[in-house]
UniProtKB/TrEMBL annotation, chains A, B:
Homodimer and heterodimers. Coiled coil: none annotated. It is a multi-pass membrane protein. It is found in: Cell membrane. This is CASP-like protein. Residues 1-27 are annotated as: Disordered. Belongs to the Casparian strip membrane proteins (CASP) family. One of its GO terms (cellular component) is plasma membrane. The keyword Membrane applies.
Length: 204, 204
């Protein structure tokens, strides 16, 4: 508690304000770099999963199977495509050094949250299909398809693992964007000592 | 902007502080009631989905099928059970009027987020199984099981709809608990004018 008190005393002195402003700028710059990288990583993972799944097809004596034969895998491809596009776009936006405004923070928060749910959903339904393809199901008389199409199943599993990497990245991004958004809500009118960007209007 | 400025001037006068403290107490009480209700609702939905799924079995000339024959439905039942228990427990904790501390806010935030993902995952994989059971799949030679077991599929769909109700509740609860947690991070040392609970330590 003593730390918070003393840091506020320093922050309220004229010299402290200058020191704090430059420290804030530096922190903001570092945060921007971390966020941009954390948005480029899922883009790379999404694109890898996308390409792996798009090229995933197998033909043999039993017949042929392609990702497009299964609705779950089609959804996975679409989800990965849309997510890669959003990741790139949001990485560009977050790379530009600009004070964060409330509408921008809300947009990031809602979209990050939405994409976490979309990619998690896509990963979950594909997991179920791969599980059924490996194990089959006696009650519904669904046979194990992976016995006949081993390579197809392996590639689909690899794409799925990459997709869960995206889910982890987006869970972290959601945490980050909710911190950015909601920490504004109790912002003091004068200066913040936590390195959080406050809109110029709020700073007045 | 004028509103924020004037409300801060009022808040900083001795009379304003008293007025504000009582308004804060009232807001906090209302927030607690809303949160408790929002935690009891998914409990009711989880229990309904759980009971519906547990009793879901059908026998006819084609054979018999029960929820326990499908791994996805077993996971759905477990997820609903655990989620109902957590909803009840967290409703009790949030109903007790107590100043919110940082560890408590972090616990609520992390658990709410985790349960949103768990229930969303359970809902997604069960959706895929029901989709396959209705439509079948030609490439993997999986037949449509719902033609033979219509009642089973209907009940499973009903349980699924209830589960997605839980997902919506938990998405809102996640939003609420991230607001509670992260709005603390920039809390002013003296008084807050947003009705957010600050730990006594932070208030000193």
């Amino acid at each position: 508690m003593a730390d918070i008190k003393s840091s506020n005393i320093v922050a309220n002195s004229p010299a402290g304000m200058g020191m704090q402003a430059s420290r804030q700028d530096e922190e903001r710059k570092n945060n921007n770099i971390v966020e941009t990288l954390l948005r480029l990583l899922p883009m790379a993972l999404c694109l890898s999963a996308l390409v792996l799944m798009l090229k995933n097809s197998q033909s043999n004596d039993f017949g042929s199977v392609s990702y497009s034969d299964l609705a779950a895998f089609r959804y996975l491809v679409h989800a990965n495509g849309v997510c890669a596009a959003y990741s790139l776009l949001s990485a560009i936006v977050s790379a530009v050094p600009r004070p964060s405004t409330m509408p921008r923070a809300w947009t990031f928060f809602l979209l990050d949250q939405m994409f976490t749910y979309i990619v998690l959903g896509a990963g979950a339904i594909s997991t179920e299909v791969i599980y059924l393809a490996y194990k089959g199901n006696a009650a519904t008389t669904w046979s194990s398809a992976c016995e006949s199409f081993g390579i197809f199943c392996h590639k689909a599993t690899a794409a799925l693992i990459l997709t869960f990497g995206v889910v982890v990245c987006y869970a972290l991004l959601s945490l980050m964007s909710s911190y950015r958004l909601f920490s504004k809500y109790d912002a003091p009118v004068a200066y913040s000592n936590k390195g959080i960007e406050i809109t110029p209007a709020f700073r007045a």
